[in-house]
Design brief:
alpha/beta, TIM Barrel, twelve-stranded mixed sheet, 11 helices, 28% helix, binds S-adenosylmethionine, binds iron/sulfur cluster
């Protein structure tokens, strides 16, 4: 059977779901959460595995084929691997990815490989254990590094995500690009967004994608722009002769909205059709009110057909007219 194709009201195909499976985390990254953490949702407010499987199945029937499990930290959820085993079996889901800080992941790498995981995005903002401790406010660098080695050994495609922060990890940019010399991995530098649970860290964004690119180009003058995969949020580059590549994600500047193919479901079961909206449909409420798949499908379709054209419009439409400051941990970055 030909898979269905889902479009939004701006003619953009939607085929990619980012599913935040928890708001809890074992780290306290500077750019994501305040040092004291965030107020976690009560367990009963989080979606259960059964509820997530039902939502993914409905969306798969509508045209979603790629799922990324994210959070919070997915692996703090004890039933995560059961969820992974079930999602890979859902008809229509052809690619399952995970974004993780890697601290609790090593013991699951072999099984993830066997289950056919498409790729893992690992958050690694620095190559220095001391700087990692100061950014994540936990001393767990060695575990993330070990997970990275296992992913490479098991030939699971890896992308490293590094949020670029003034006075925190600028000295890591060049050594991280050096990792792509002999390894076919992608190292992505992300503009810092104000989703940190406490508001903007700076009066204005200093490390824009343009500044990051200029900085990289001065160290690697021969770096070349390479073709970006379809619907990617990153601009891709490669140093000639290096095995891996470099991505820069203009997450704050929002230059990629025109080809955005993704929707999000937050840890409490809200649908977001844009990272910058405040949630456009409470799917958990529909499920817990006993609504049928058909009713839920209708509500989802309605939300897809009322999608903001870009992150600027979505931010302006926030009813609470509060500045964007919720933690990325509840949204699923
Ligand atoms: N805990 C997992 C991890 O860290 O990979 C998954 C969840 S985390 C919220 C997903 C991604 O969001 C990470 O790659 C992280 O770097 C990114 N992120 C979190 N807060 C951010 C912010 N304020 N600006 C830009 N990226 C952010
Ligand atoms: Fe946790 Fe990921 Fe947020 Fe860091 S970025 S605090 S690892 S959810």
């Amino acid at each position: 059977m030909t898979p269905p194709i889902l479009f939004d009201n701006h003619g953009r195909p939607l085929n990619y779901l980012r599913l935040a499976v928890t708001d809890r985390c074992n780290l306290r990254c500077f750019y994501c959460m305040p040092e004291g953490g965030i107020r976690y949702l009560k367990k009963a407010e989080l979606l259960s595995n059964e509820e997530m499987v039902r939502i993914v199945s409905i969306l798969a029937g509508m045209g979603i084929s790629k799922v990324r499990i994210t959070g919070g930290e997915p692996f703090v959820r004890h039933d995560l691997m059961q969820l992974v085993r079930t999602i890979v079996e859902i008809d229509g889901i052809t690619n399952l990815h995970i974004t993780s800080n890697g601290v609790l992941m090593a013991q699951h790498v072999k099984e993830l490989k066997a289950l056919g995981i498409a790729s893992v995005n690992l958050s690694l903002d620095t190559l220095d254990a001391g700087r990692s401790k100061s950014i994540t406010r936990r001393d767990e660098f060695a575990k993330t590094w070990h997970t990275l080695q296992l992913l490479i050994e098991n030939k699971i495609p890896v992308k490293l995500n590094a949020v670029v922060m003034e006075d925190k990890n600028i000295e890591d940019i060049i050594p991280m690009i050096e990792l792509t010399r002999n390894q076919n991995i992608s190292v992505r530098f992300i503009e810092e967004m104000p989703f940190n649970g406490e508001g903007s860290h700076y009066p204005r964004l200093n490390w824009t994608y343009k500044k990051i690119l200029d900085y990289i180009s001065s160290a690697f003058p021969t770096i070349e722009k390479i073709t970006d995969p379809q619907n990617t949020t990153a601009y891709h580059y490669q140093v000639p002769g290096f095995k891996g590549n470099v991505g820069i994600i203009a997450a704050f500047s929002r230059t990629f909205c025109g080809s955005c193919n993704r929707i999000r479901i937050t840890a409490q079961g809200n649908l977001k059709t844009c990272l910058y909206d405040e949630g456009v449909l409470d799917i958990k409420r529909l499920i817990r009110a006993g609504k049928s798949d058909e009713v839920i499908k209708g509500e989802l379709l309605n939300a897809f057909l009322n999608r903001s054209v870009d992150g600027i419009e979505a931010e302006a439409a926030r009813k609470k007219s509060l500045p964007v400051m919720e933690s990325m941990s509840t949204i699923g970055g």
